[in-house]
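Batch 3, record 17
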Amino acid sequence: DAGVIQSPRHEVTEMGQEVTLRCKPISGHDYLFWYRQTMMRGLELLIYFNNNVPIDDSGMPEDRFSAKMPNASFSTLKIQPSEPRDSAVYFCASIFSSRGRISEQFFGPGTRLTVL
Amino acid sequence: DAKTTQPPSMDCAEGRAANLPCNHSTISGNEYVYWYRQIHSQGPQYIIHGLKNNETNEMASLIITEDRKSSTLILPHATLRDTAVYYCIVNSGGSNYKLTFGKGTLLTVNP
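Prediction for the assembled complex:
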């Protein structure tokens, strides 16, 4: 298995532009997570989905951020409009949940976003 | 989920055992201890988890004290590739998949 795939790996954009980050979870996994990592705030959970349905978006910083999961093999995190403070590494992770078992999260390589 | 406390950094000589401590004095009875690590510029990687008993897998061993208020992750023979930030996380497991990552411990393995 190729693992969790994220694209692009690096994104540089200017303030005010729309940014779309993409994630392909591991096949068969039923949970998908979006995290953001900065030096100041560390690794934060933004939102997670179960079977393509958003379960908890309490970590989404503001309305400029939105996430979708149109099918089991694809998710997007969109920032519109982007701001310099959105600069961070964004990670996607997935899990195959199994009742009664602890499920490890498999993380992708991340997308490094720089907003100028 | 209970809060965890870890030293910000540790050093270890290559080939020696690395013992990474974690304090979780407010852990409750149904909460698990997880360890993840993050090698520079990569996504976090699961290492091991435990509830009460000591656990061992191909990567590491996890020793949990009897009162469960602290634990130690042991890398038996550290290599340079084990240099990473190690996160100790407490979570109730089951369908609670929200992991709260603290600042972790930066382990530097020296040649």
